[in-house]
Amino acid sequence: MKKEVIVISLGGSVIIPNNIDYNFLRKFKKIIKSHTRKYKFIINCGGGNIARKYISALKKSGASTKLQSLSGISATRMNARFLSHFFGKDLDRGLAHKMKTIKKFLRKQDIVFCGALEYKPEQTSDSTSAEITKVFKTKFINITNVQGLYTADPKKTKHAKFIPVISWRNFHKMAKKIKFQPGQHFVIDQTASKIILENKITTYIVGKDLKQLDNILNKKPFKGTTIGG
Predict the structure, then answer these.
(1) Nearest-angstrom CA–CA distance, 13 and 143
(2) Lower CB density within 10 Å: C or N end of the chain?
């Protein structure tokens, strides 16, 4: 039986919020490995706190937006390499930096890790995940540090309302209202939302409660946001 490919965008904010979240990663590893009989996984890691610290310092120094983004890309790749080691992978062939390398690795492996692939303006690792999902014609799961999509940042706005379901078009409208900046906090970036809309990619946003990831993979009801339709 041919295994379905699932693309997971694993936010840097859940890998290393301040310190490495060992318990979260241990549970994540257990759930992913428990589903490899049915699925192959491409896990794209965000830069999170490390990337934002680099970007903040470069911004203060007057460095260009491109240099800020390149620093963020380096952080995503460092997190991806760390996570691959956490899963017990040696990476003797290196980390995938291009789509063709992901395809090559996936032919022989059930779990492939990557960070951002190549520099493109106004993109975060979300865009990489969306591009990968487009190529593999599959589903996109975004794991972040909030339960799903809200009308505003729930960490800053007390009355932010949770959105369990939203159309591709309405989600893209929300994303476009935010001005892009390297290391931004919005759950999925503007370029990714455009890719999701144009390719009608079913997208799930869930938080750190990994039971919800397990439910999605088991095709059960889950607490989070579905983007589609």
Answers:
(1) 9
(2) N
Distance CA 116, CA 126 (A): 9
Beta-strand ranges (E) seen in 108-168 are: 111-114, 139-143, 149-150, 162-163, 165-166
- pLDDT tens sequence across 101-110: 999 999 999 9
Strand partners, 96: 114
CA-based R_g, the chain, Å: 16
The span from the CA of 124 to the CA of 102, in Å, is 18
How much is the pLDDT for 18?
A: 84
Number of domains in the chain: 1
**CA 65 remoteness from chain centre:** 21
> Helix crossing, 125-136 with 190-198: angle to 10°?
20
CATH number of domain containing 52: 3.40.1160.10
Range of the domain at 77: 4-227
> What would the pLDDT profile of 24-39 be if each residue is shown by its tens digit?
999 999 999 999 999 9
Block residue for tokens 């490390």: 50
- Going through the chain in order, the beta strands assigned E by DSSP cover 4-10, 39-45, 111-114, 139-143, 149-150, 162-163, 165-166, 203-206, 225-227
Residue 218, both tokens = 């088991």
Name the percent of the chain in helix, strand, coil, to the closest 5: 45, 15, 40
Q: In DSSP terms, which residues pair with 166 in a beta bridge?
A: 227
CA distance 27 to 175: 30
Check if the beta carbon of residue 168 is closer than 8 Å to that of residue 196: yes
